[in-house]
Amino acid sequence: MADQGSLELLVQSLRRLPGVGVRSAQRIAYHLLQHDRPGAQQLARALEQAVVSVRHCALCHTFTEQEICPTCLDPRRDRSQLCVVETPADQAAMERTGAYKGLYFVLMGRLSPLDGVGPQDIGLQQLLDRVDAAQTPDDIPVREVILATGFTAEGETTAHVISQALKARGIQVTRLARGVPVGSELEYVDLGTIAHALVDRR
Q: Is the pTM of this model over 0.90?
């Protein structure tokens, strides 16, 4: 009975992961216990270590094991540019492009009034404090903030609120362009994407 309780606890714990339902959680649990017990132990140790060691960067709010993350400490980054993203996963995606050489700020969420998530629940005030702190004679001022939040209703709302707050401070604010994906055929692209691509043409 105790073993069954432990197995159920494992399944319920796995269900906390995004996109993992009951059946997926059961498959993962059974696989680890039947075929990969060393992997299960490694996963448990890695999770425990990460929970203890990983914190938020004091400057950009992303995940790091140090007070300030390696990206913020990199002297080769353009400190006059700040790219605002919703999550560390979004930051990683931007980095994989190799096209952006500035700094980041990670909100750790997005505004969602229907879910009760307001400006105080994400890193909005920390972002504004970060921009204000950089505008001193002793630091390189932030000249452009690039809003790279998602193109969902919540992401657009978040971008709008941030844009209004930053423009009031005299900061140049830009938004990631929306357009037709590279390699796609126009007849298969949704109408909203085509409309935005037309408006944002250059």
A: no
